[in-house]
Amino acid sequence: MILESLTIRPDDLLARSGWSMKPEGACKGDVCVPLPARVVNDGLVDVSMLADRLGMPLVADEAHGVWSLGPETRVTGRALTTAVAPDITLPDLSGRSVRIADLRPQKVVLVAWASW
Amino acid sequence: MWQALRTELHPRGVEIVTVALDTGGADAVRPWIEAANPEHPSLIDTAHICDDLLGIVNVPNAVWIDEHGMIVRSAEPAWPGETPMLGMLPAMVENLPPERRVVIDEILKMKVDPAGYLEMLLDWVEKGADSQYVLSPDQVIARSLPRGDDEARAAAHFELGHHLYTGGHHDAAVPHWREAHRLHPANWTYKRQAWNLEPTEPGAPNRYEGDWLTDVRAIGAENYYPAIVA
Q: Is residue B99 scored above 90 in pLDDT?
């Protein structure tokens, strides 16, 4: 997740990382990690504190004034933290956004490919 | 290829969603998508967000998601059954120049099982949650790839590289992509994506440590696609 400051709106955090801020902490699918209440201040999430608790690397590119927040490592130690499918929305060739969750209740086979 | 299978399976409650992991965006994938003329969603993931959200490190890979939004098989090599191209490769070798022939020679060593994968997929379509190939949530997580600090940092560097590249700063992206490659050498999408965006004219410098042929030979082509565990 690309950041221009070390605070982020909860909606933006959810859209890119799948982590939502709830009273019980940071939650992804059926997994919740308790967090100090001060992690959210004035409606913004303190990214450094969140990154520390979830084991998310925070990499800076100082020359361009941006950070990149990597995925969590501290919950399962695997690429998937939960078997609940992430809420992925991506564009098609025409630029139309498609939300994969909207395809329910069909089964979905998500196939990754590339031109390279 | 997937469109033909979609025609067969869509009336049975299955949707195919293809996702192109392509930083080149619509321009890079348009010829393939237009040739396939898919009726299913055919999406473009320029930042490779599916790499870290789903644990995808190579293509083609697929993830099965059930009617309730649960992943029932994590990312693994996937084919829509036998494809004509795979069968044509041995004959193609004879007509290729040596530098291309060595690439095909390595591809021919790769172990793939398109027929077996299709059999698994059809079993799930028919039996749903009762299919022997459906995994429990704990199994799904356990079968996703290990993610430690190196793999997570690689994801962060790859995304920084993507951000800079799409902002017109290709040279600034290269150190981040090099670092992603170093931290997560098993992620072929990071490597092949970055290599693909390099100039191809003769004499152009290679700004990366590896290349496809060297790296495939290093791991052994037979290990390029892990065997699918039923």
A: no
pLDDT above 90 (res B199): no
Question: Could you give phi then psi for residue A27, rounded to 5 degrees?
Answer: -125, 140
CA distance linking residue B189 with residue B134, whole number of Å: 26
The interface predicted TM-score of the complex, written ipTM, equals: 0.96
From the list A73, A92, A108, the residue facing B148 with the nearest CB is A73
SS3 B36: helix
pLDDT: which is higher, B88 or A74: A74
Cβ contacts of A59 on chain B, cutoff 8 Å: 153, 156-157, 160, 176
CA–CA distance, B229 with B81 (Å, rounded to integer): 17
Chain B contact for A76, CB < 8 A?
yes
Nearest to B71 among A59, A80, A115 (CB): A80
- The DSSP H or E segment spanning B18 is strand B14-21
| Whole-angstrom distance, CA of residue B195 vs CA of residue B23 | 12
